[in-house]
Amino acid sequence: MKNRPYDGFMSVPASARLNQMLSLSEGLMILAQAAARRANTSYREYRRVRRGSTLRPGPNTPLWNEVARLANEELNRYGAKARLGRILGVPRQRVHQYVMDRTACPDAERTLLLLAWLQARRAGRDFA
Fold first, then answer.
1. pTM value?
2. Are 60 and 105 in contact (CB under 8 A)?
3. What are 1-52's pLDDT values in tens digits?
4. If you ran DSSP here, which 8-state letter would residue 22 be given?
5. Of 95, 91, 96, 88, nearest in space to 127 by CA
6. For position 36, what pLDDT does the model report?
7. More exposed terminus of the chain, fewer Cβ within 10 Å: N or C?
8. d(C-alpha 111, C-alpha 107), whole Å
């Protein structure tokens, strides 16, 4: 015993060591579960996009997210979504999907119309 270096962990009784190991393992399990959840969500976010397929709104579309945020700020008055829907040629429910829910993206022509509408609204003009 005299030649062995001091091992503080081994000098603790077995039941106390077991309690320490159990508390440590609980913390490790919580961290492992959080890491697994994060890996699962990041895997779901990454979907292989096939050539020619429709781009869906989400973290991979930062420009559309910004356009939708700016449009959402302008659609605070009663009937604004219906008026924008008439300009874009879509129902107001689709405008809601574009801007509020962000579950759909408009095609290129409607996106350009939306950008022109945003520019007119920022300049204080009404887009007819």
1. 0.58
2. no
3. 455 555 555 555 667 767 777 777 777 778 778 887 777 765 555 556 667 6
4. H
5. 88
6. 79
7. N
8. 6
Residues 6+ apart with CB under 8 A from 54: 105
Place of tokens 């039941």: 15
Over residues 50-90, the pLDDT tens digits come to 676 667 788 878 888 899 999 999 999 999 999 999 999 99
Q: What is the largest CA-CA distance in the chain?
A: 93
Using the structure block, give the residue that is written with the tokens 């009784």.
13
Give how far Cα 5 sits from Cα of 13, 18, 111, Å.
18, 22, 72
Contact 114, 71 (CB under 8 A): yes
CA pair distance 19, 71, nearest whole angstrom: 56
**33/48 Cα distance (integer angstroms):** 25
Q: Output phi, psi for 22, to 5 deg.
A: -65, -45
The number of C-alpha atoms within 13 Å of 53 and in the hemisphere containing its C-beta is 8
